[in-house]
């Protein structure tokens, strides 16, 4: 059973606030990903990491940033939240040797910016 | 860039009806194919996958999918759905060699099964 945790699950904040969405996995996976999910739309990749100190931007342009200081931790930060950032954010991971595309997902963080 | 198309965005069925959800992709190279499912209030989880070999793959809970290379398709099927199959279903495609190994997801299909 995969163990990947996201906090907070739900967050409602005002415009201009700085927020960090946390993602941790206990499986020792080297690859981690952040996807943005809106109702009826594709999951869009916004950031990924292939290991400690490695981060890349995904297909969807995002104003968020990520860091990967420890293998198990991959937080996503919005320096100044806006209503356009309202969405669900999904964190995922893949272990070394696992086939491309076989991901384990967290339960998501649903962000609402007022 | 590769894209993944799921043609049915909303499907409503009665229990015991048969299900087929379409998925087509645009990438012409070797691919890994996946179906993920998201039950209400739960995380996305793998339903089934295809890498090579028999193009008809079986997954959990009686689901199966058929890879038809000539049609760039990977349709999901279940002969008889249950109320508990109500969920969102996502098709995903990942390149198997070279370039990025990141999967691309379709828009998802919302399935509602009436008891």
Can you walk me through this structure?
The complex is a heterodimer of chains A (114) and B (115). Chain A has 114 residues and is an all-beta fold. Chain A has one domain (13-113): Sandwich (Immunoglobulin-like), CATH 2.60.40. In chain A, 0% of the residues lie in helices and 48% in strands. Chain A is built from no helices and eleven strands. Chain B has 115 residues and is mainly β. Chain B has a single domain, classed as Immunoglobulin-like (Sandwich), CATH 2.60.40.10. Helices cover 0% and strands 50% of the residues of chain B. Chain B has no helices and twelve strands. In chain B, strands 2, 5, 6, 10, 11 and 12 form a six-stranded mixed sheet that branches. The radius of gyration of chain B is 14 Å and the shape is globular. The mean pLDDT of chain B is 90.
Q: Can you count the beta strands of chain A? A: 11
Q: Mean of the pLDDT scores of chain A?
A: 92
Helicity range of chain B: under 10%
Strand count of chain B: 12
CATH level 1 name of chain B: Mainly Beta
Estimate the strand proportion of chain B: over 45%
What CATH first level of chain A would be assigned?
Mainly Beta
Supply the CATH architecture of chain A. Answer: Sandwich
Question: N-to-C terminal Cα separation of chain B, in Å?
Answer: 41 Å
Shape of chain B: globular
Termini separation of chain A = 36 Å
Order of helices and strands of chain B: EEEEEEEEEEEE
CATH-level-2 architecture of chain B: Sandwich
Query: What about the largest sheet of chain A?
Result: 7 strands, mixed
Task: Supply the helix-strand structural class of chain A.
Answer: mainly beta
Number of helices of chain B: 0
Radius of gyration of chain A: 13 Å
